[in-house]
From TrEMBL:
The keyword Zinc applies. InterPro entries: Carbonic_anhydrase (IPR001765), Carbonic_anhydrase_sf (IPR036874). This is Carbonic anhydrase. Its cofactor is Zn(2+). It comes from Clohesyomyces aquaticus.
Length: 147
């Protein structure tokens, strides 16, 4: 990926929030880049921050990265909602409207491609946003570009 990075523009990584893994460690980039950490590395959870970064610095490229054995592949929207309902039964109406962008099964390629496609069609960026997607494999320590 490093060879394709735009010069003199901001590159942002959307990544997972698991503190055991740091994208800064496995991406061997010569410059410092912002990393937006959200559950599952899902793009929808990062949109507000991306828009602020684009407004302030002009985004050159966004890299969406999910990883194998992600916690979001082991839980569903319903499991999360049920946990919230147990804690906050008086907020049932609000909780019923929530969506946590689950990653069903281990189909990380599909979730990465979905996030890349979703970001590319957002109307809030001046031009079509340049987005690349990848999957980090915990076992090999390597990233596979999928989109």
């Amino acid at each position: 990926i490093a060879e394709t990075l735009p010069r003199n523009q901001m590159v942002v990584i959307i990544s997972w929030m698991d503190p055991r893994l740091s994208p800064e460690q496995f991406f061997d980039f010569a410059r410092v880049m912002p990393v937006i950490r959200v559950a599952g590395g899902r793009a929808k959870g990062a949109l507000d921050t991306l828009l602020v970064l684009d407004h302030a610095f002009c985004l050159g490229q966004t890299i969406v990265v999910h990883h194998t054995d992600c916690s979001m592949t082991h839980m569903t929207n319903e499991v999360i909602k049920n946990g919230l309902l147990n804690r906050c039964p008086d907020k049932a109406t609000d909780i019923s409207k929530m969506h946590f962008d689950e990653i069903t099964g281990d189909d990380l390629e599909r979730s990465v491609k979905s996030d890349v496609k979703w970001l590319r069609v957002q109307p809030y960026f001046d031009d079509e946003i340049d987005v690349v997607g990848g999957i980090f494999d915990l076992n090999t320590g390597k990233i596979e570009i999928v989109e």
